Amino acid sequence: MKSRAAVAFGPGKPLEIVEIDVAPPKKGEVLVKITHTGVCHTDAFTLSGDDPEGVFPAVLGHEGGGIVVEVGEGVTSLKPGDHVIPLYTAECGECKFCKSGKTNLCQAVRATQGKGLMPDGTTRFSYKGEPVYHYMGTSTFSEYTVVAEISLAKVNPQAPLDKVCLLGCGVTTGIGAVHNTAKVKAGDTVAIFGLGGIGLAAIQGAVQAKAGRIIAIDTNPAKFELARDMGATDCINPKDHDKPIQEVIVEMTDGGVDFSFECIGNVDVMRAALECCHKGWGESVIIGVAGAGQEIRTRPFQLVTGRVWRGSAFGGVKGRTQLPGMVEDAMAGKIRLDPFITHRMPLEQINDAFELMHQGKSIRTVIYF
Ligand code: NAD
Ligand code: AHE
Ligand code: ZN
Ligand code: ZN
């Protein structure tokens, strides 16, 4: 079938809106009509060419919501008409990772996913007869996409897809990192570096966890109003200080924070986020994605003296089992999605959404088809 899609033809090039061909779903696959998709910084990261897994041409996008159109052979858990959120972290329930009870990082389709292919090693997308690659197993920048059954969370059909699409990545990642990875408890002091969609969601998670003090850090002070609205108790611009930001935070917190979250993808900030943690017990969670060749550094003494470095993917959330509940929470007002949506625009304007993000003028743009 034909589908309007924003195709990334090469690194650093604007997306092109073209009509691609989408082949029917094969065994264990599902054809989904995407109604809405957010634009996450990770899409921009891959488009920039910094992603070692980036392949071109590809249909990017991984923060979508849609409706099942057709199911392939053997698909039993979904049927046409079901409302779904595509998952870049699948949940097969059967692999070593799923069964471990220790991680959400299902590996059932991860190897082919990282190559831009469906689990059978081929692509369902083509343009003018040439293959176009998938992205993160989701490719939500296409009106029609093909996704593995195990990479789809079935959600309440009453849920507004133009909002809950944000649970496909940003909001779930930030909230989940606080609850599942850090396990923030009432009264804890937290520092959140980077106040985009992920950082603001982490603030929301910290509020839910009843954190005592929530310190929000960004070099763009325009982000502070929304951070305060979300529940930040302190907002800091590192540019306002002539000493390293970790020193500023250690001084203002009587020795450091209980938990910090890096929501930027900057390895220098990752170091600051670790080093602003309290001696003996402070834990820092890396959420931001850094480019090929980047490495983190600190003095090992920082770890010897009890600080802990962790990482979090999709907030540690198991998509098929946990995301439907988070959608219910959003419908019940327990998760706020509206403040994240600063812009809405049709697919044709998707490059403007990337531009707004780069200029620091948006939190999330929701694209409709
Ligand atoms: P965003 O661009 O909307 O937000 C980033 C924020 O960081 C901006 O407000 C920017 O002003 C701020 N910032 C930039 N440099 C800074 C610095 N040196 N000090 C302080 N603040 C600084 O991005 P986003 O969509 O919120 O994504 C944030 C990061 O999280 C990206 O790296 C993205 O790839 C990553 N991410 C990871 C996961 C995961 O599962 N681990 C999921 C989603 C996104
Ligand atoms: N492909 C990159 C890594 C990208 C990455 O870290 N992705 C995050 C999700 S970002 C969503 O906005 C993630 O969940 N990673 C776990 C996984 O299995 O991909 C690289 O460096 O190769
Ligand atoms: Zn994302
Ligand atoms: Zn699995």
From TrEMBL:
Homodimer. Transmembrane segments: none annotated. One of its GO terms (molecular function) is S-nitrosoglutathione reductase (NADH) activity. The keyword Heme does not apply. GO terms for biological process: formaldehyde catabolic process. This is S-(hydroxymethyl)glutathione dehydrogenase. Has high formaldehyde dehydrogenase activity in the presence of glutathione and catalyzes the oxidation of normal alcohols in a reaction that is not GSH-dependent. In addition, hemithiolacetals other than those formed from GSH, including omega-thiol fatty acids, also are substrates. Also acts as a S-nitroso-glutathione reductase by catalyzing the NADH-dependent reduction of S-nitrosoglutathione. It catalyses: S-nitrosoglutathione + NADH + H(+) = S-(hydroxysulfenamide)glutathione + NAD(+); a primary alcohol + NAD(+) = an aldehyde + NADH + H(+); a secondary alcohol + NAD(+) = a ketone + NADH + H(+); S-(hydroxymethyl)glutathione + NAD(+) = S-formylglutathione + NADH + H(+). The lineage of its organism: Bacteria, Pseudomonadati, Pseudomonadota, Gammaproteobacteria, Enterobacterales. Pfam families: ADH_N (PF08240), ADH_zinc_N (PF00107). Its EC number is 1.1.1.284. Residues 10-367 form the Enoyl reductase (ER) domain. Keywords: Metal-binding, NAD, Oxidoreductase, Zinc. It is an enzyme of class 1 (oxidoreductase). GO terms for cellular component: cytosol.
